[in-house]
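Quick question about two entries, pasted in order.
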Amino acid sequence: MSIVIHRGESVGILGRNGSGKSTLLQIIAGTLQPTTGDVKLRGKVAALLELGSGFNPDFTGRENVHLSGAVLGYSRAEMETRFDGIADFADIGDFMDQPVKTYSSGMMMRLAFAVQTAVEPDILIVDEALSVGDAPFQAKCFARLRSIQAAGCTILFVSHDIGTVRAFCQQALWLDHGIPQAQGVANDVCAAYARDCARAMGMEYQESAPVQQESVSNTAKNRSSVLLRESRAEFQKNARLSRRGNGRVQIRNFFLLDADGKRTTELTWDQEVTAVYVVGSDREFDGLFRLSVTCMSLQGVELLSCTDRTHQHRLRLKPGAEEVLTMQVKFPLVAGRYALFSGLFIFPDDAVFPGGTLDFSRSTAADLLSFSAFIEILPQFNLGIHGPVHLETPLSFAAG
């Protein structure tokens, strides 16, 4: 095979088990030598290959951070300057000073990913490493990958998840027994690979229609102090990942309630739930506002957004006070794990159309929080979804 990958490209590598994906990455990383041909690399390479590879199991996490840095050509002093950021990203607490052999697979992956992405590689190789992470950490990893991608890092990404390759990679390569079957634009290669997988299972493959956005909303007040206390710590931990806005009003907590008023992160298709926002301000505030919640894939692809487009609402806050706001939402999505981004927009008093709706072009983002919460849509059957039906016989209609 002959492959040319340019600086800053993200390339997904697809194929069934035994197709040669991991072997190819190990050859590129230099841990295997090709039987024929050669590999030419320009730049520093960091690799996440087999789980735990490159770590000494008897060393602590802290010691392995320095060991990995030394392998990549960094001095101990240079790794010390990066250590706090690595420890914060890995988020394994006191285990950082425990031997790596005591780690779970998820903890080992957290540390490995934190180290390899903190050393500013020119080329990053990722071989299915993210599959063992929980939903919040996967989302944090993809946010980090997009950040280093924007900085010009070339990323080679092996995954069995076609959706991830579509969302994250510009180019893709499909291998079968070491032989390229397709190479080029990621969306095209993914479609070809999906068709082949479907044929192997005796199924027809058809591209799905794009997800339609839906907005369902209603602003009200909800007082549930126990739920507010229970969810606040988790929210604040997730919200650290990313937030934007002028901070005039802040979202202090966010979670979902089911029809029984119980906090939930597991939903069924199109189930209506209540999105609860606890908002506050350090200064007095009196103005119009609108809430929003956006559902994203863990890879950072926006799937749908819910907001109140048809009504105007006024929020009044004393300095240091908090208010509880709610909005009814639905997430008509296929089974899987998703991230929720919450938002609060404010408007001047004259930003109202004659019909009473708010002029969104005059809004200001007060607070936009990535990864406010994580949900799982559970599998469900007999949904009663309607769609086009192909009939072989001709139809005739008559008035009756």
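Here is the second entry:
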Amino acid sequence: ECGRQSASAGGSSAARGPPPSANASCTGSGYFIDWGSSGMKVYPVHRSQASDDSVSQSGATDMVANTLEDFKVSGVSAESTAAQVQAILDDLLLHLPDGAATESEGPNGAVLATAGMRLAPDRADALWASVRAWADEHPGIFGRCGQGTSNEDCKTLSGSEEAVYEMQSAL
């Protein structure tokens, strides 16, 4: 089913159960990226569509629950250049499976940064401008990112927001 992780794969995502719509098919793919101080933890994700053609209203946490195999891109930090970050995003785009995100299917993913970016706000602002410009050219990959949106899917998390994600991952 669109590369959904099996229950025997282990980890906290398997404990969350099936996606919100049990009779669903893959409508788009993207990435949920946890951008930490030492790199990016990348979770390939997909959005499900119910049989009645209504897109499920799951949030970023539900997208993580339906991931394919995750991986790490090391060495990406607040000290990286905009060109380096955009090159990584370009490479990730090339590796999306069939059914890749399109503007009409979004939002399909997010890139959220943590403490490393909070500690370098000026550098973070420049990098986020670069990510949002990239999202303008590639609509749907990061959902509410660029495109005149609220940028809720591409931002640096506050400490309390990061704590909520940590708590949810432990449950």
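Reply: The radius of gyration is 15 Å. Residues 29-44+68-170 form a domain with the Nucleotidyltransferase; domain 5 fold (CATH 3.30.420). Hope that helps.
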